[in-house]
Amino acid sequence: MKLPGYQKEFKIEQTLLLTATATERVIDDMCAKFNILKDHVFVTGLYRENLYLQITPIATPEKKNRVLQRIREILKASTIVYVTLQKTAEDVSDFLCANNINAHPYHAGMQNEKREQIQNKFMDGTLACIVATIAFGMGIDKNDYR
């Protein structure tokens, strides 16, 4: 909310606002605050042809084996397994590695340098599987992941 004031204070002539989740109300608010014409707003949508959501209810003791089975279905596909806890990211990654899947955890509790190394390996294709909390994935532009 302070950005429009800074824009004026520092005489910033151009501003680019980016988000994946702005509601129509937020877009209108930002246009007003930053003096942006509605004609200069571009909304592309969230649909990605190569992504889909599949929900499979699994009993807790069977979850790791089900993830392993899904990954083995297409071994070479880049995969992100999302979990809710940092400890779970570590545990699932260890389980996958013990079952010959090259997987690494990724979460906010790791050193920045380590996270960057993992992300770079995932992006260049040398690491096929990341087990991550929501610390990973937003804005990833990779055409071959699931």
Overview of this protein structure:
The protein is mainly α. It folds into two domains: 3-40, no CATH class; 60-132, P-loop containing nucleotide triphosphate hydrolases (Rossmann fold, 3-Layer(aba) Sandwich). The protein has helices at residues 3-9, 24-34, 63-73, 86-98, 112-124; strands at residues 79-82, 103-106, 129-132. It is elongated, with a radius of gyration of 20 Å.
Helix-strand makeup class:
mainly alpha
CATH architecture of the largest domain: 3-Layer(aba) Sandwich
End-to-end Cα distance = 36 Å
Report helical residue fraction.
25-40%
What is the CATH class of the largest domain?
A: Alpha Beta
Low-confidence runs: none
Shape: elongated
Average pLDDT across residues? 86
Supply the number of structural domains: 2
List the keywords:
146 residues; mainly alpha; 8% strand; 2 domains; 3 strands; Rossmann fold; three-stranded parallel β-sheet
Give a brief description.
The protein has helices at 3-9, 24-34, 63-73, 86-98, 112-124, and strands at residues 79-82, 103-106, 129-132. The chain is mainly α and 146 residues long. It has a 3-stranded parallel sheet.
SSE topology sketch:
Layout: H1 3-9, H2 24-34, H3 63-73, E1 79-82, H4 86-98, E2 103-106, H5 112-124, E3 129-132
Parallel strand pairs: 1-3, 2-3
